[in-house]
Amino acid sequence: MLTILRKHASTWITKAILGLIAVVFIFFFGSGTLRKSQNHPSAVVAKVNGEPITVAYLQGQILEKQESNEMYKNLPESFEQKFRSMVLNGIINEKILVTEAEKIGLAVSNAELADAIQKTPQAQKDGKFDSVFYQSRFRPWFANRYAIDYEEWLKNALTKAKLFQYFSNMVVVSDNEVKSHFASENTRFKFKKVSLQFMPLAEKNIPDEKEIQAWIDQKKSSTKETLPPDDILKQEAVQELNKKTGHAKADSLAQEMLPLWKGSGNVASFVKKNELLEDETDSVNLNEMQIAFPGIRPDDIQKLAGLSPEKPILDSIIDTGDAIYLVKLVEKKQADWTEFETKKQEEIQKLKEERVASIFDQWFEEKKKSAKIKIVEST
Questions:
Q1: Reported confidence tier of residue 41, pLDDT bands at 50, 70, 90
Q2: What is the pLDDT of residues 299-336, one digit of tens each?
Q3: What distance in Å separates the CA atoms of residue 88 and residue 44, rounded to the nearest whole number?
Q4: Crossing angle of helices 344-370/150-168, nearest 10°?
Q5: CATH of domain 2-173+347-375
Q6: Which of 132, 142, 275, 143 is nearest to 196 (CA)?
Q7: Which of 69, 141, 245, 367 falls between 20 and 30 A from 328, CA-CA?
Q8: What is the CA radius of gyration of the chain?
Q9: Does the pLDDT value for residue 172 go beyond 60?
C-alpha cells in the first residue's frame, strides 16, 4: 500500500502520510525527547458525532505539525490560539472523512494495515520487519509522543488515501480538455485599461434623507431576516446609494469615451480632464484575469481572450459591479505547444487533481454540514 502511495506522492493526502512517516523517522532515531505531559490530558476539547477529541490528542497533533513544518515553530503568542484552532479543525475533518469513507465501503482491511505496518521504515532490521522492536519500542514511543496509537494513525491515513483514490477514479479528462487547460494557464496577455471606479466617482455625492429612508424601508420590506439597527442600515444605505450614483456616472463617462477609445481621439486628455486612471496590467493568463479586473465575469474573460493583434480593442465596456473598464490588448503570447507535448502527462495529472479536489471539497462540505460537531470553548 505504501508503494502505491509513494507512486502517487503528488496528492495532498499521500504527502501528509509520507511526510509524517519521515518526521517520525527523524525524531525516533534523532531525539529521545518525549511529548511533555499536559494538564488534564483526558479533558475533552471537542466531539464529532459523539466521539471525543482529548487535550492530549490535540497537543500531540500540534507537536506533529510543529515537527513537520518549520513555520509552525516558535509562533508569536498572538497566533498560537489560531494555530491551535487550525489543528483542531484538521482533527475534526479527519474524523468525518474516516467515518464517511467507511460508510461507502472504503475501510482499510486487516491485511492492508498489516502490510503497511510491516513496511514501516522505523521497524526494519537488516531489511526485514522486526516485530519485537516495533511492539516494544516504536509503537509505545509513537503513542506517547503523539497521543494516538501508530496503527490507528496509519489506518486513518490509509483510509483517507483510499477515499481520495475513490474520487480520483471518477474523473477522466480528454486530450481537448487538457489542451484547453494548458492554453488557459500558458497564454499570456497584457492590457492597457482605463478604470472608472464607482465609489471614487461618487465621493462628493450626499444622498438626501428621503433617499436613505426609502432604501431602508425597501430593505426591511424585502427580507424576513433580522436586520441591524437603523444607524447601521443608514450607513449601508449611504454606501449603496453612492455606489449607484457612481455606477451611473461611470457608465456615462465610459459611453462618452468609448468612441475615442475605439478611434484615434485624444484619450489622454479625456482621462486627465475627468481624473480617471489609465494604466497597463501585468502579464496575466486567463486564470489571473480576476487580479487585473477584480469581479470580472466569465463571459467578459472570454471576450478579452478573443482579442488579438489584428483586433486589439474591446468594442464594449466591462462592468464588474464595482468598476467599468475600457480595455485594449497590448501583448498576447501564445502557449508553447512544443512544451505541452513534453509535459502532456504532467498536465493531465494536474488537471485531474484539480477536478478531483473540487469534487472532493464539495462532497466533504456536505458531509461536514450533517456531522454533529461540538466545540468545548473552555479548553
A1: low
A2: 999 999 999 999 999 999 999 999 999 999 999 999 99
A3: 12
A4: 110
A5: 1.10.4030.10
A6: 275
A7: 245
A8: 29
A9: yes
> Over the stretch 228-252, which tens digit does the pLDDT of each residue have?
888 888 899 889 999 999 999 999 9
Residue 197 backbone dihedrals phi, psi, to 5 degrees: -80, 130
Give, as one character, the DSSP assignment of residue 12.
H
Per residue, the 3-state secondary structure of 266-300, as one string, reads CHHHHHHHCCCEEEECCCECHHHHHHHCCCCCHHH
Residue 103: partners with Cβ closer than 8 Å, 6 or more residues away:
none
Q: Do 122 and 24 touch, CB atoms closer than 8 A?
A: yes
Residue type at position 4: I
Which grid coordinates are listed for 144? 506517547
Is residue 249 packed enough to be buried (19+ CB in 10 Å), middle (13-18) or exposed (0-12)? middle
Give which of 227, 96, 258, 222 is closest to 163, Cα–Cα.
96
Q: Give the integer Cα–Cα distance in Å for 259 and 249.
A: 17
Tell me the sheet residues that pair with 192: 280, 328
φ, ψ (nearest 5 deg) of residue 118: -65, -15
Other C-beta atoms lying within 10 Å of the C-beta of residue 257? 21
What amino acid occupies position 278? E
Count Cβ atoms within 10 A of the Cβ of residue 17 and give its class: 0-12 exposed, 13-18 middle, 19 or more buried. Answer: buried
